[in-house]
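Minutes, project huddle
Topic: does the predicted pose make sense with zinc ion bound?
PN asked that the exact inputs be recorded in the minutes so nobody has to dig through chat later. Recorded below.
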Amino acid sequence: MEPMVRLRAASRAQRIHDYLEFRADRLDIPCMLCGEKPAIRSQTRYAYETPWDDEPVAKYFCSDDCGDTYMYEEPWAYFMCHSCDREICEQNPWNGWHIQYRMVDGEQICLKCYRERLLDEGLEFERERLEDGEIPGMFFSYGNLEAKGAGYEGVPGFTDYHVDSQQRADAFRKKALELLDGGRKVIIGYERLAIGGGEGYVTLMAKDCDKAGKAEAGQSGAR
Ligand SMILES: [Zn+2]
Ligand SMILES: [Zn+2]
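Predicted holo structure (tokens), as shared on screen:
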């Protein structure tokens, strides 16, 4: 073959190859953001709608731009949890006001990772917020199942505690700090909170509360 002919054949083969590749990469669904161009397989992103989901959901886009806009702009922005390395929606799509992350040490942590750390360590790492007048806690399943499963028990007089005044809030925080100072693991379960957090019901729980109490009683009795 003449060199020119060979070149043309090669370039034609390349074009066919590119076209087939493009066609294979093109999906039969429109881009989830612009809705105009077809989504491209290699632009697919995977993200979790809630931290509790086992599997991510595929999101289909035509381009990087469309993907970034969809993922990182309001209202349904996604964030990377620094603890589990998953992209998760900042707000629960089924329950819009429910924020699905907490800031810990300046980083966004998903509620699932936050819950694991809380159950494991108690809220010593949130002590500063407690001292600053906040009531740092979270919603568990009805009856605070996860907390009970991890060995926490309700602190008598501070379960389903109605916070409706500064005084009541301060008494609750004081009790929590007292238990922390006593070396106990403490957590707070939100029972019902008014949107905005000004008022609600909360439950104070501590780990090995009874045992620690009995041990102390035993020690003082032996003296
Ligand atoms: Zn698009
Ligand atoms: Zn996480």
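Observations noted during the meeting:
- The longest helix spans residues 3-25.
- The pocket of zinc ion (ligand 2) is lined by residues 51, 81, 83-84, 86, 110, 112-113 (CB under 6 Å).
No decisions taken; revisit at the next huddle.
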